[in-house]
Amino acid sequence: MNQEPKTNTQPQQSLKTMPIPPPPLMSPGPINVPASAPPPPPPPPRQEETKRRNPLLNRWSIILSEAEPHEKEDPGRIRVRLQGEIQGHPNPRFTDGEVIQSSELIGINVDAKTAKTKHTIYDLGEVDPTFLEYVQGLGKQLSDYNFSLRGDKK
Fold first, then answer.
1. DSSP readout, 75-103?
2. Per residue in 68-114, pLDDT tens?
3. DSSP string spanning 19-62?
């Protein structure tokens, strides 16, 4: 008896003609991320890119001024204000680097480098050298100017 190997009578498909299934739907983002996956979180900001909490006042000094025309309360009273170069003020009318006068000062902590006015809390940067010279000429230190008005609720 002639023993021939049994062969399959059905024709075999060649690998070249086999259909290739389409790839799964992918997002235009990173490779192999399904379209339904949320985007990866952004990297944390570097220290210098972190937005500061309060506007920064550089080359600051404490000044005395009369009431502004729009101030109706006690127009003859002298006000204590801050003056300096502003950075990062939320009010768009102030541009970075512009020298401003603050509203009335209601507290300052030179050691903590913060000051509070009627409307804004400021971070204090470098003091104005002329103001520092004036203070030292009086035999004082900047910390001698620390104060907070009682009853301050803001």
1. TTSPEEEEEEEEES-SSTTSPTT-EEE-S
2. 766 677 777 888 999 999 999 988 899 999 999 998 999 999 999 99
3. PPPPPPPB-SSSTT-BTTSPPPPPPPPPGGGSPPSS-EEEEEEE
Q: Any idea what the Cα angle at residue 137 is, between residues 131 and 142, rounded to 5°?
A: 50
pTM greater than 0.90: no
Residue with tokens 């101030």: 71
H and E: helices and strands count for the chain: 1, 7
For 115, phi and psi rounded to 5 degrees? Answer: -145, 150
The token duo for 6 is 């049994």
